[in-house]
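Pipeline run #58 for the internal structure catalog. This entry was flagged by the ingest filter as a single-chain record with no existing model, so it goes straight to prediction. Upstream metadata was stripped on purpose; only the residue string is passed forward. Reviewer on rotation: M.T. Logging verbosity set to normal.
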Amino acid sequence: MFDKLKSIGWERGNTDFPFYNDNPKLSNNKWYALILVSVFLALGSSSFGYDVYISIGILVLPVLVVIYAFKGHFGEIVKVPELNDFWLIILCIIGELILTLSLASIIPGANVTAQDDFAVSLTVMNIIETVIQLIWEELYKFILFITALYVSYKFTSKRGFSVVIATVFALTFFGAMHLSVYSDLFYSVVTIGYGSIVTVYAYLRTKNLLVSYLVHLCYDLILMVLIYLATLLV
């Protein structure tokens, strides 16, 4: 079932993820570094924002391990978007907004305006901070995804199954990382983690982290503006 991901349109037929299947090949030392960092990011995700040392590690290690492990291969991660990608970006932004509002209406106590204080003070500096922050968030998810994909495929040799496992793994801990913001682990994992599936789909479809980043950035900026405008009407 999972091996039919490409045939059902979840992925483009002529594309594949980098690194996990020696395409291109990474050294064992680089994979060890990625695995160790991924374990740290996963185990420390729910402590982010609470423990200062773990928080610093989570902020710094993704950047360092990307520079070390993927040096010379950044073109496999970030590419110039194709023309069709811009239509995908628009559709994914709409899909992300619909999914967020749907989850907010289904989950009791859900609060999609947890960033109200940030949005109310909408400034150029806040926008710049968001641009930089989301680069880091996309790297965080990518490290977890590509490492889990490599490990799962190494043990199972089942590509489709490994893609699903890697996606769930990345989204789960990405959501848990927001615990300090939303103060509810279930809400953080389901709405922020799994609620980011549309953004992740943009990467799964294109194998281009720039595309998923643009979806994530535009979605957050639109949400910030909507919240800001809503406060003006109160």
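catalog note: The chain is about 70% helix and 0% strand.
catalog note: The first helix runs from residue 28 to 44.
status: ready for reviewer M.T.
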